[in-house]
């Protein structure tokens, strides 16, 4: 990712914001459209992590099409760019992970102040879709959020990916923190995260993100017009493949390192060696697929930058049934 590319797309986004009627939200990098036909409000987040910029061209394309009138939408939609300052610095965040600080009292730092600015947008959302990317390459795009009935229906109807890494409702992604999608789900509304591709431009995130946004806009218009229901639209698409986390390997010492080449959805079997040569042995405890493998850079002293991630990898496997039945 080059900051010149990011500056280009941010400039186009800002131009679209300036060309649209003034929206209701004070956050500078929020594009708002109100078609005047119904009040349903879709919200899409991009660049919540500064190095996950791949969805931004799609967000720009949708905003420009709405301004030009080549894309019509009767309801309300807000598209926001979460942490462009971190992106321009070539970093995931500046002081704190923006996608962990949507709690009642965010910390007094750049990302905490940004969360306070963004919360009124999320407070007004009927559905929130957070567009993310993985650090390492991924063999599949995938949804990742706990099971929620309406969230399942929206995810299936959008058909952005057939894969969903889910978990029991109410289970936090990170202890002592709150993600943006969790903030919306706390209001009993759909908060959906999609991992589109590996982070950066040019890995396939743009077409996936734009297709998901356009499909969600069309769906909300159709529901408002009475030509379909959310359930009927969802049932018209194939059922999702439900996965869940069955193992998390703690990242608790500098000596740990993964062998080169592990990517998201690398298949493993029990006993497969996962550690790099000359480091403490790590073997897969079960069959499944690797998710979120970590390869953080080492500093001059040979140690990782602190704090360490909570886990060096996790394993996911198919759920033994439908989460609607398992998570009652």
Q: What is the residue-averaged pLDDT?
A: 95
Strand order of the largest sheet: 1-3-2-4-7-5-6-8-11-10-9
Q: Output the number of helix runs.
A: 9
Shape: globular
Radius of gyration from the alpha-carbon trace, in angstroms: 20 Å
CATH class of the largest domain: Alpha Beta
**Structural class, judged by helices and strands?**
alpha/beta
The N- and C-terminal alpha carbons lie at a distance of: 43 Å
Summarize the structure in words.
By secondary structure, this protein is α/β, with parallel strands linked by helices. The chain has two domains: 3-235, Aminopeptidase (3-Layer(aba) Sandwich), CATH 3.40.630.10; 249-328. It has nine helices and eleven strands. An eleven-stranded mixed beta sheet has the order 1-3-2-4-7-5-6-8-11-10-9. The longest helix is centred in the middle third of the chain and has 21 residues, at 205-225. The N and C termini lie far apart (43 Å).
Topology, pairings included?
Layout: H1 3-19, E1 30-34, E2 41-46, H2 56-68, E3 76-81, H3 84-88, H4 110-123, E4 127-134, E5 142-144, H5 149-158, E6 163-165, H6 180-185, E7 191-198, H7 205-225, H8 230-235, E8 241-250, E9 267-268, E10 288-291, E11 311-318, H9 323-326
Parallel strand pairs: 2-3, 2-4, 4-7, 5-6, 6-8
Antiparallel strand pairs: 1-3, 5-7, 8-11, 9-10, 10-11
Summarize the structure.
This protein has 328 residues and is of the alpha/beta class. Strands 1-3-2-4-7-5-6-8-11-10-9 form an 11-stranded mixed beta sheet.
Task: Tag the structure with descriptive keywords.
2 domains, Aminopeptidase, alpha/beta, 11-stranded mixed beta sheet
